[in-house]
Design a protein that fits this description.
- The complex is a heterodimer of chains A (608) and B (225).
- With 608 residues, chain A is an all-alpha fold.
- Chain A has one domain (43-594): Cytochrome c oxidase-like, subunit I domain (Cytochrome C Oxidase, Chain A, Up-down Bundle).
- In chain A, 62% of the residues lie in helices and 2% in strands.
- Chain A has helices spanning 3-15, 36-41, 46-76, 83-89, 100-136, 144-164, 194-223, 236-267, 291-325, 332-346, 361-373, 375-389, 398-421, 423-429, 433-463, 469-495, 515-545, and strands spanning 278-279, 282-283, 587-589, 592-594.
- In chain A, strand 1 (278-279) and strand 2 (282-283) form a beta hairpin.
- The longest helix of chain A is centred in the N-terminal third of the chain and has 37 residues, at 100-136.
- The radius of gyration of chain A is 25 Å and the shape is globular.
- Chain A starts with a helix and ends in a 14-residue tail after the last strand.
- Chain B has one domain (27-224): Up-down Bundle (Four Helix Bundle (Hemerythrin (Met), subunit A)).
- Helices cover 68% and strands 0% of the residues of chain B.
- Chain B starts with 22 loop residues before the first helix and ends with a helix.
- Chain B is elongated.
- The chains are: A mainly alpha (608), B mainly alpha (225).
- At the A-B interface, helix 1, helix 7, helix 8 and helix 9 of A face helix 1 and helix 5 of B.
Chain lengths: 608, 225
């Protein structure tokens, strides 16, 4: 089958407003050989692009996690020296101790990499690409070409960010939020010199990549659903990718606007964010700007961004839980409604990151209310996950375990969100380790668990082989226990007032009590990091040597991706795209273990 | 066109585009929505800073010049001309799209050329205005204009925002003109005749109208308020 015929056929048919399912059954017999370049590098096949996103994301995750190991060495063992650090970091770790500048660079890059490059591009980039066409029943994305561009813009952004590690003044080091005036003034810190420009350029390229990807995801979901796949028959994964893409398309441009103004402040002498500043004893000429303006623009993206990270994980966990509990998802429409509510509220709560900026308390009150409202849809989702597995016939696959782990961490991290959402408590806890603990558990660890669940679950569809289960179990238990051991104690540190972002706490007697705890956390970080390397080895080993998948539907799931061949070619289905007759969650129904979406509803069957 | 479309058809049941539009047009709409947020963010930033300022330059005083008219005091006349040109180019774009629906290749070519001329004329006007302001001492970080209440400017917020936002809009017009030229070349080559429809003209038309609409807001914010 040639791509041109398939994809062109699809476009034409769509243009005429007919179903594409009827027409592209033809022309699938002759196979079109692709060159290495068009198959593996500049591929327009959504499945290959998904793998490109995933592997790039894995590489970034290793780098980002390694950075956290390095700065945890400083936090856990502030008096120790590690001569091997000097041999890899050179003058950034003179005498075997990370310098303050390097510490801030590592922290900044850890945040940037994990939030954007791993948990946005690596998570929704991978699975939106992989699952949307397969689960809605489409041959590929609406525009495979733009989809390819989306990856390559991400790749370019990655290259620019990577390059910033190697410039003489080092990468950006003002925090992943890049607040001015620090980020706007090259004289204020060496991390605000060329490294900051590269950071901004890289992020601008990243926004372009998100836009190209997001437009594709939205129009594919709306336009290319196969016959019978009404919106309410879609698996929850697709709903979550849909809301994620809408959030990205509407919030990233605001970040871009903020960056444009920041670039002018850096290079054109403007004062959008700058006013009344002294740097190194010199008065700056800038007048009339507002640093708070940047924070508004940043968090207008920054807050939806956390839902861009968590929504795909929520959708995929719903799917994996239902399949492995052999039960229909509980409250399908409530799940969709909650995601919709979360998507709307995502745009209305950004200023809860700014309670201590001098925000008018009257305005703050509204943001408190709207922030606490998010607890409602979140709780609905949590209850629905629990009721889905309640009395289920659970198969404890690694995917299922990670999904259950996701629910656990989402609850523990979500509850502290209610604390922080209250302005009065936030004023005490702001910028302490309590915040670190909160967002790492609810967003970082949870999203990673969702991602791991999805990788274990859909690996057989991606590569036609399984990941090693035993290593999967080891990976799960060490990661779950390790994550709690790392982040749970940070709540106590935060409540005691221990501030984040500090390089060394030894001058504060009140925090000496945490010296042992900090060392303990750092040791667990190293163990958990090593455990993730085990997963990476499992991943790459299994691509080539893993146990082969022998049936098209190894998990006995209902959704469309399991109706394709074990190793689907470009176009996904060798014949016609199957028609959909029922929702995606007919498990343990009418005495049957599961009924695929492609099976017509029989007359004597009770509707779900 | 699909003649079986009836009122009873389940548009959202899959197998159809629920809005009966191609994916390309859908993407253009979502892109415009996204871009509206870019401009929205810039204009709201402008509004925030302006409303927190005690005083602001009077646009009637700042924008009072016209090419070849020397020192004549013609407040907002030139920008009205610019705006008129841009709105007229939207009208010609409507006519190009309309001609495309009727597959009238000649008319598409004619109206697209007029649209391109209109866009280029707008950019020319903007270039003149920027040059003129530059020569009166205005630029990013330089604000020579006194405030409306007679006090001297204490910061460059006015010019910073003016050049950044009109520049960003001008960049959009420039890319719109380039897109229009590409589409015109395709029409001349008969690409859409072979394809059987002129939807690409419609898509760049959407973009063009959007850029025009944004100008209405930029114009209001900087020249009228």
């Amino acid at each position: 089958m040639s791509n041109e015929a398939t994809l062109h056929g699809q476009h034409e048919v769509i243009h005429h407003g007919e179903g594409h399912g009827h027409h592209d059954g033809h022309d699938h017999d002759h196979h079109h050989e692709q060159s290495f370049i068009s198959k593996y590098v500049f591929s327009m096949d959504h499945k290959m692009i998904a793998k490109q996103f995933l592997i790039t994301g894995i590489i970034w995750a290793i780098i980002g996690a390694l950075f956290s190991v390095l700065f945890r060495l400083q936090l856990g063992f502030p008096d120790a020296t590690f001569p091997w650090l000097e041999s890899i970091l050179g003058h950034w770790a003179e005498g075997g101790r990370i310098t303050p500048q390097a510490y801030y660079a590592l922290v900044t890059m850890h945040g940037t990499i994990l939030v954007f490059f791993v948990l946005t591009a690596g998570l929704s980039g991978t699975f939106s690409n992989f699952l949307i066409p397969l689960q809605v029943g489409a041959r590929d994305m609406a525009s495979p070409f733009m989809n390819m561009l989306s990856y390559w813009f991400f790749f370019l952004a990655s290259m620019v960010m990577m390059a910033s590690f190697f410039v003489q003044t080092g990468p950006a080091s003002g925090g992943w939020t890049a607040y001015p005036p620090l980020s706007a003034l090259g004289d204020a810190s060496i991390g605000s010199k060329i490294g900051m420009d590269l950071w901004l350029v890289s992020m601008a390229l990243f926004v372009v990549s998100q836009l190209l990807g997001g437009l594709n995801y939205i129009s594919t979901i709306l336009n290319l659903r196969t016959k019978g796949m009404s919106m309410t028959k879609m698996p929850l994964t697709i709903w979550s990718f849909f809301f994620t893409a809408v959030l990205g398309v509407l919030s990233f441009p605001v970040l871009l606007s903020g960056f444009i103004l920041l670039l002018f402040d850096r290079h054109a002498g403007t004062s959008f964010y700058l006013s009344e500043l002294f740097v190194k004893g010199k008065v700056l000429p800038n007048e009339g700007g507002s640093a708070i303006l940047y924070q508004h623009l940043f968090w207008f993206l920054g807050h939806p961004e956390v839902y861009i990270i968590i929504l795909p994980a929520m959708g995929m966990v719903s799917e994996v839980l239902a399949i492995n509990a052999r039960k229909p998802i509980f409250g399908y429409l409530a799940m969709v409604g909650s995601m919709f509510a979360i998507a709307i509220l995502a745009f209305l709560v950004w200023a809860h990151h700014m309670f201590v900026t001098g925000l008018n308390p009257f305005l703050g009150a509204f943001f408190v209310l709207l922030t606490l409202l998010i607890a409602v849809p979140s709780a609905i989702k949590v209850f629905n996950w629990i009721t889905t597995i309640w009395k289920g016939n659970i198969r404890f696959t690694p995917g299922a375990l990670f999904s259950i782990g996701f629910v656990s961490t989402f609850i523990s991290g979500g509850l502290t969100g209610i604390w922080l959402g209250n302005a009065s408590i936030d004023i005490h806890l702001h910028d302490t380790y309590f915040v670190i603990a909160h967002f790492h558990i609810v967003m970082g660890v949870s999203a990673f668990f969702g991602m791991f669940a999805a990788i274990y679950h859909w690996f057989p569809k991606m590569y036609g082989r399984y990941l090693n289960q035993t290593i999967g179990y080891i990976h799960f238990w060490i990661t779950l226990i390790g994550a709690y051991l790392i982040f749970w104690p940070m709540h106590y540190e935060g409540m005691a007032g221990m501030p984040r972002r500090y390089y060394n706490y030894s001058s504060w007697a009140s925090f000496n009590q945490f010296d042992g705890l900090n060392a303990f956390i750092s040791i667990v970080v190293i163990i958990v990091f090593a455990c993730q390397l085990l997963f990476v080895i499992n991943f790459f080993y299994s691509i080539f040597k893993g146990r082969k998948v022998t049936t098209t539907n190894p998990w006995l799931a209902t959704t469309l991706e399991w109706t394709t061949p074990i190793n689907p070619g470009h176009g996904n289905w060798p014949g016609e795209i199957p028609e959909v007759h029922r929702w995606a969650y007919d498990y343990s129904k009418d005495g049957k273990d599961f009924i695929p979406q492609t099976v017509p509803v029989s007359p004597d069957e009770s509707a779900h | 066109m699909d003649t079986t479309v009836t009122a009873k058809k389940k548009w959202w049941a899959g197998g159809y585009s629920p809005f009966n539009v191609s994916y390309g047009k859908l993407m253009m709409w979502y892109f415009l929505l996204s871009d509206a947020f870019t401009f929205g963010a810039l204009l709201i930033s402008y509004g925030t800073v302006r409303f927190s300022s005690l005083s602001w330059p009077d646009p009637n005083h700042v924008f009072h010049s016209f090419p070849f008219m020397g020192d004549a005091n013609l407040p907002l006349v030139f920008v009205s001309l610019m705006t008129f040109i841009l709105i007229m180019s939207s009208v010609t774009m409507v006519l190009a799209v309309h001609a495309g629906h009727h597959r009238d290749r000649k008319a598409v070519i004619k109206w697209l050329i007029w649209t391109i001329i209109g866009g280029a004329a707008f950019l020319g006007c903007q270039a003149w205005e920027w040059t003129h302001l530059y020569h009166s001492g205005a630029w990013w970080s330089l604000n020579p204009f006194a405030n409306a209440d007679g006090t001297a400017a204490t910061n460059s917020n006015f010019t910073d925002f003016f050049f950044t936002i009109t520049g960003f809009h001008g960049l959009h017009v420039t890319s719109g003109v380039i897109l229009n030229i590409v589409i015109l070349l395709n029409v001349l080559n008969g690409t859409y005749e072979k394809r059987g429809h002129y939807e690409m003209v419609e898509k760049v038309g959407l973009y063009w109208h959007f850029v025009d609409l944004v100008w209405v807001f930029v114009f209001t914010c900087f020249y009228l308020l």
